[in-house]
Design a protein that fits this description.
alpha/beta; Spore Coat Polysaccharide Biosynthesis Protein SpsA, Chain A; eleven-stranded mixed sheet; 8 helices; 11 strands; about 25% helix
Length: about 300
Amino acid sequence: MIKVGFLVSYDFKYLYKSIPLVYDASDLIVLAVDKDRLTWSGNPLFIDPSFFEWVKKFDTLNKIVIYEDTFYIPENSPSENDTRERNLLAKAMGDGGWHIQIDSDEYFNDFKNFVSFLKEKKDYLKNPEKHPVEIHVQWITLFKKVEGGFLYIKDSLDAIEVATNYPKYKYMRATRHSKKIITKFILLHQSWARDDEEIYTKITNWSHRDDSDNAAFYKFWKNINIDNYKEFTNFHENDPTKWKSLEFIAEDEIDSLKIEISSFQLFKLKTKKYLVQFMREKLPISIQKKIETTFKRLVK
């Protein structure tokens, strides 16, 4: 069974795009909504009632469940509230099957083939507690909407965990299971490609509110434009090495973006417990050799 969970908050409007991308290939979709309409930082959030009307009309196959609960605990940090909500969402999704958690502003454009990939791994579902696994995809982050297109993170080291057979979350979406599978599937992350007001709402309410100087990074973000973006390297706010550089893509609409991942993103592995698997099409020989060489060096 393929179960997908979304967290519904101040950026609910992106769900109009992200839900349809996973709807057909999923068996169950659960939307977690704070019943008091509070963020993880305890600030009020607004969700337009018309969103829930849209869900009812869109859900022609009765796959979508609205799960409302209290997700803001005052004594918790935002990241702790995030992790807690994901575990409560997992319980609401029920035991068994593949658990997939996708954020509102993440677009899974090849979800059908990702589901096929998971179904090939059915042995992991026989005894998940004994053989837990965490499935990662490549996270392509849009950094800013500029005239004529978008700036996005090129050659990032972001691979994000999205699926597991054993949903016991330790830190936000991370289960930290020792067995990990890194795939070539792409999750397009709208992230910072929003207007100024939305970004300010994001950094004052998200899980990473206390992780770094968000105000300084916000100022840095505001000053980046089409003329100066090439000047900046290694600029991720928490781990500079994760974001190597920015690139421009000339498309006005996210639906038409065709961003490819590079060999750089494919072979950056951190431990010998990482099992690298790819989609069925063959990679270029040069990339295969680079991956093999790097993997051998890392597992010594």
